């Protein structure tokens, strides 16, 4: 599930994950779009965060490729586990 940085800071991920779980919809993970990545805070939330993607207007292609590769790896590991 993709959430914006604003949504990530106001409870949308937790509420959405709970709703999906209650309805029996599988959720592999959450991805934050934009904003600063608060890794320690995300771990404390106890939600299935996979990582984040930058929302800059024109990020460098290499940066996007690195971010996409990291998310793909996290997704593969989560899917196996």
Could you give the count of β-strands?
Answer: 3
Can you tell me the number of structural domains?
1
Average predicted local confidence, pLDDT: 85
Tell me the strand percentage band.
Answer: 5-15%
Helix content: 40-55%
What does the main sheet amount to? 3 strands, parallel
Name a few traits of the molecule.
globular; 4 helices; three-stranded parallel β-sheet; 81 residues; alpha/beta; 3 strands
Blueprint of the fold:
Blueprint: E1 2-4, H1 5-8, H2 12-23, E2 30-33, H3 39-45, E3 49-53, H4 61-80
Parallel strand pairs: 1-2, 2-3
Structure in words:
With 81 residues, the protein is an alpha/beta fold. The chain has one domain (2-80). Helices cover 53% and strands 15% of the residues. It is built from 4 helices and 3 strands. It has helices at residues 5-8, 12-23, 39-45, 61-80; strands at residues 2-4, 30-33, 49-53. Strands 1-2-3 form a 3-stranded parallel beta sheet, with helices on both faces. β2 (30-33), α3 (39-45) and β3 (49-53) form a beta-alpha-beta unit. It is globular, with a radius of gyration of 13 Å. The two termini are 18 Å apart.
Structure summary:
With 81 residues, this protein is an alpha/beta fold.
């Amino acid at each position: 599930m993709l959430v914006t940085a604003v949504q990530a800071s106001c409870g949308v991920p937790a509420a959405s994950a709970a709703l999906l779980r209650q309805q029996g919809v599988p959720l592999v993970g959450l991805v934050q779009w934009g904003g600063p990545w608060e890794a320690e805070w995300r771990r404390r939330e106890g939600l299935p965060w996979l990582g984040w993607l930058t929302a800059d207007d024109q990020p460098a292609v290499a940066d996007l490729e690195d971010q996409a590769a990291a998310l793909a790896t996290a997704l593969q590991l989560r899917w196996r586990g």
